[in-house]
Design goal:
Elements: H1 7-25, H2 31-37, H3 44-73, H4 75-90, H5 92-95, H6 99-127, H7 130-161, H8 172-183, H9 196-199, H10 205-233, H11 238-257, H12 259-263
Helix pairs in contact: 1-6, 1-7, 1-8, 2-3, 3-4, 3-6, 4-6, 4-8, 7-11, 10-11
Length: 266
Amino acid sequence: MLKIVKTQTKVTLLLLSMLTMMSNVAIVTMLPHLSTIFKNIENIELLSRLMITLPSLAIAIFAPFLGHIINKFGKKNSLIIALFSYSLFGTAGFYLDTLFEILVSRFFFGIAIATLMIVITSLIGDYFKNEARYKFMGLQSAFISIGGVVFIVGGGVLSDIGWNYTFAIYAVGLIVLIFVLKYLVEHKVKTSLIDDEEHLLNHNLWYIYLLAFSLMLVFYIVPTQMPFLMINVFNASGMLTGEIIAVAFVFNAAGALTFAKLKKYF
């Protein structure tokens, strides 16, 4: 582990973290348009929402097993493959013709996201320790939210141009891939043996898990349901809808920036 992490490496880690957030929110303003584009398909309202939930389903299924594969192939190699897959399957909606083809691509897109999430978390543990790690995690959360603001508004602008143009925003993964190839270094971290009692999870953590689950459930209701209300009921533009949803991410970023300071008191 390096004692001093280069600024370029920190920026690369933050950009990678940003990609995981934009995985779903970037296309939410496009969803209501699918009811018109694919109006002949039965249950289109339900199927359009699967654009958001399928990647999450893939993450839930494959994340427990991907860690072993990542350890075998290496973190950086896995990251390179994941970023290429992220852009390939993420932009699939731009050039695929049928709804079901796009839904399949969204599932594979979720596997790429799961890989990114695992590798990013592991790399942060490799690069940072103790207080430096807490500070970077707070910065990471803030950067994720800021990225959410940029990409949800950007996605709204693209959805006003054409419904399938929104998917093109995922090509940014290829730009981040350049940063990974140039600035990211994988380090072999020596693990020390720790007394088993220190590894035991405190039972109170289950309450934290439940709280985190509830918070994320509420947090994602807004971007998944708000576009249908704003566009179908109030005839709002994609850009305006994106700006309204982005307000939640602005406050999330503000809260994340205070994480390191608040941790000293709790």
